[in-house]
């Protein structure tokens, strides 16, 4: 896979990140990062964890580690040190790559970073033949370790190649989704390298910044992001003649958005459905089936008891495994769905567990609640989500909301933290004595409770 | 560079901008602002004022409430040259 991804003319522009990055330059960067990783002791069959912001250093390190023949774990750079430590303990990589110096403004589309590789004596070599490891929050128990083989990634690239509306050679993708996650990684980075499509990073993740990235060149251009980015783009600005379509994934699209996008730009807002475990599963790149999606080439789907199942030859999980998630060759998605028996089109309705999506970033409310309730400042609590994450809790005597916020900031990445914290005198309970999750009861208890120390 | 509207947005204007995200009414907008809302607000203000706001992590950290956002935008926009 590695050789194919870097193949091509050295002068071909493959990435735009503040300027053109020809394939030859990327290949040189991969060589340099291979030497960096090897000097840290990474060998074929070894393990490395990447904890870098989206940057050329990230891309070069990932490709270098794969060329060495190592198994690579991707850690979201937005995780706080406590979460990174937990992940490293779980994954036991032999080498950890972090950003030695990174410059990035908060609204930047990418970072300028130098990679720093550190050996971990307690790290272990790869126990499985997988090349990619990602962590996903489990609704119960520890987070799942999701593993993918090179063959599986090549299969996914094959699916993208068969999608005739997906950009190919001579076209561009403006990437707004993170390359730490599967959409940006495979649908953006790896597809572009594989298909000869230019991968374009906007300077800024604002409406003006995204439009500037689209208009910077004359080639046909697709924008790939999450629904929030589409909402940003329809708020103003000028026509974009290069824009062929925008495709969003990661969370459900508001029903009015595809029509508003087409009205604004005269091109479709398509959507994709996928999972970390499998990558792209179903698509509607032209918005013709909205809100339904059609199975991607080669994917078999069915709905059982209201849940979408996807055919998958082997379990994608390693380590501690929830044995109910992959059964007899079918992966349970935990997404509620309906399927039209006549057309095979699938409509995703939402999650069946406690996972939510904040701008495409997955958050497991159970993880947030368990973290909250384990704080010494909290006697008991419940985390709820309607349009934002909210916590309802009873404080330990002498504790304040500010104490709770400070403690959460040390343990949870910003996008996982409750936006609202409601302090209650006591948790409302059901008639059987269980703490209730009824929003009405929680809100009533919050209204009835006197103001707590902030 | 032309600045329009000429004055930095006040509380009411900030709430109106935030309410557009997710098709909410101003009453649905809470004092606490999430990261997506901040990104939305910055993008909208940049479009309306035809400016690029220079932001640091520290500046962004001051924009987690509506009051903080109003004050921060006033500071940022007062430093933008007219004309």
Mind explaining what this structure looks like?
The complex is a heterodimer of chains A (454) and B (83). Chain A has 454 residues and is α/β, with parallel strands linked by helices. Chain A folds into three domains: 2-148, Rossmann fold; 172-351, ANL, N-terminal domain (Rossmann fold, 3-Layer(aba) Sandwich); 359-448, GMP Synthetase, Chain A, domain 3. Chain A is built from twelve helices and 26 strands. Chain A has helices at 2-6, 23-39, 56-68, 81-91, 150-162, 182-195, 207-215, 227-233, 257-265, 365-373, 401-411, 439-448, and strands at 13-16, 20-22, 47-51, 71-74, 95-103, 112-119, 132-136, 144-148, 172-175, 198-200, 221-225, 243-248, 269-275, 279-284, 292-295, 301-304, 307-311, 317-318, 326-327, 330-339, 346-351, 355-358, 361-364, 378-385, 389-395, 420-423. In chain A, the strands form four sheets. In chain A, strands 1, 2, 9, 10, 11, 12, 13, 14, 15, 16, 17, 19, 20 and 21 form a 14-stranded mixed sheet that branches. Chain A has a seven-stranded mixed sheet with strand order 6-5-3-4-7-8-18, sandwiched between helices. In chain A, helix 8 (227-233) links the parallel strand 11 and strand 12 (243-248). Chain B has one domain (11-77): Non-ribosomal Peptide Synthetase Peptidyl Carrier Protein, Chain A (Orthogonal Bundle), CATH 1.10.1200.10. In chain B, 52% of the residues lie in helices and 0% in strands. Chain B is globular, with a radius of gyration of 12 Å. The chains are: A alpha/beta (454), B mainly alpha (83). At the A-B interface, helix 8 of A face helix 2 and helix 3 of B.
Report the helical percentage of chain B: 40-55%
Rg of chain B, Cα atoms, Å:
12 Å
Q: Look up the CATH topology of chain B.
A: Non-ribosomal Peptide Synthetase Peptidyl Carrier Protein, Chain A
Taken in chain order, the helices and strands of chain B follow as: HHHH
Strands, helices and their partners?
The complex is a heterodimer of chains A (454) and B (83).
Chain A: H1 2-6, E1 13-16, E2 20-22, H2 23-39, E3 47-51, H3 56-68, E4 71-74, H4 81-91, E5 95-103, E6 112-119, E7 132-136, E8 144-148, H5 150-162, E9 172-175, H6 182-195, E10 198-200, H7 207-215, E11 221-225, H8 227-233, E12 243-248, H9 257-265, E13 269-275, E14 279-284, E15 292-295, E16 301-304, E17 307-311, E18 317-318, E19 326-327, E20 330-339, E21 346-351, E22 355-358, E23 361-364, H10 365-373, E24 378-385, E25 389-395, H11 401-411, E26 420-423, H12 439-448
Parallel strand pairs in A: 1-10, 3-4, 3-5, 4-7, 9-10, 9-11, 11-12, 12-13, 25-26
Antiparallel strand pairs in A: 1-2, 5-6, 7-8, 8-18, 13-14, 14-15, 15-21, 16-17, 17-20, 19-20, 20-21, 22-23, 24-25
Chain B: H1 11-20, H2 35-49, H3 57-61, H4 66-78
